[in-house]
Amino acid sequence: MNRDDDATLVVPTETDPPTEVVDAWIHAALRRLPAPARLRAALVARELVADARGRRAAPYVLRLSVLDRRSTLAVAVDCATAADEPMVTSTELLVSGLCTRWGVERRLSARTTWAELTVDASGPLRLHAPDQPRPGFRFPDRRSR
Known about the structure:
Helix content is 28%, strand content 28%. By secondary structure, the chain is an alpha+beta fold. The N and C termini lie far apart (44 Å).
């Protein structure tokens, strides 16, 4: 694989980087995809990260990968989890409606929630791999202008 096949964001805490920085990173990573696929994939990625942040322990790792001869985008979030996690969350139900396939892989103290989206594109799918946000980075407060 090359840099156009994968993009990974490490989210170290429940609040850092803030949601808007995570969203900006997701949109930057997906910017080469056709608009309908980009919007669907961004929604799936945001939902999986938000679900992990709201219900599971940090750190979280968001992975975006191009699969299957470059026609499928995989979105996955790894995180710590408790043994008594519910089998299916409302986020996963939403994701199931937007994706070709999805699932949850459970390990002793961690889980990966993943989803795959088939993308209709005129050429091969390519991702952009943005840099990790600096710890503590915040966008300027627009209300103070």
